[in-house]
Amino acid sequence: MIRDKHFPMRLSGAALALSLAAVLASTLPGSAASGSTGFSLWVFASPSRPAITARATSPANAPSVFSPDKGKFRITISGQQVGSEDFEISAAADFWIQRSSMNAHSPDGANIKASGQLKLSADGAPMRYDWSAEAQKKATGFVDFAGGMAKCTADLGGRAPLRKDFDFKSPIVAVLDNNLYYQFGVLARVYDWKAGGKQTFPVLIPQDMIPGSISVESLGPQQAGNGRYETLRVSSPDLEILVYVDASHRMMRLEVPSSNVTIERE
User: Fold this and answer.
1) Is 8 among the domain residues?
2) What average pLDDT is seen over the chain?
3) Range of 146's domain?
4) 148 Cβ contact list (under 8 Å, min separation 6)
């Protein structure tokens, strides 16, 4: 993603310990969940610069990019487990539902929780996303997607919910929310493996109501842990994440080399 110079970062000890890289911010001025939902995943991008969409929408009768999957990830930092995530994706009528629930603890003993439910069309376009997050405080929210528009609402316990709308100019938007890692598995499904190469996706981080873009590139088969997997590099100018998938493109492992973070399927 392209960092917006108008949003200076503020780093906290918990963010440095639990984020996916030391460069990531726990909060940003203007973020919906500022100070309440733990650590953020990305250095965010400016909403003023649209991303190039990697995949056009598919015909209504085209096969889905998804297949059913269910499991649990271990979340480790420098080999020490700090949390876990339960995940599932399944078909429902003519759409798909992806659910995740994450629990983690920071070095100071504070618990961090996050959950999300993402409704998707068969080609990977998001339709609706509902989330909740809890660290010092609890926050909830949702996003309605339609034709490239994302209408975001967040309830932080104040008098009125926060609302922001974003126009991505494309229905294919990667939802990569804070602390929910199977969403990278959804991204791996939406990536066009036949086309290959480097592809750019618009991104929304709902808990922070911040849009951006990322590049995704296939690196071919690589050894990771105890297995050999097809590998995707997900990157921005400030961050590189490696996503490892099996022959069916199920996410098996995720690594952030710069911060010794590993997300691995049990």
Assistant:
1) no
2) 81
3) 13-265
4) 167, 168, 169, 170, 171, 173
Cβ neighbours of residue 20 under 8 Å, at least 6 residues apart?
Answer: 41, 239, 241, 256, 259, 261
Quote the number of domains for the chain.
Answer: 1
104-113, pLDDT tens digit by residue? 987 777 889 9
For 187, the 3-state DSSP assignment is helix
With a pLDDT cut of 90, the percent of the chain lying above it is 67
Residue 115 amino acid letter:
S
Structure tokens at 187: 């991204």
The answer to whether 143 and 128 are in contact (CB under 8 A) is: yes
The mean pLDDT of 26-53, rounded to a whole number, is: 37
Q: How far is CA 236 from CA 45, 203, 212, 225, 229, in A?
A: 9, 11, 10, 24, 22
Domain membership of residue 82 (yes or no) is yes
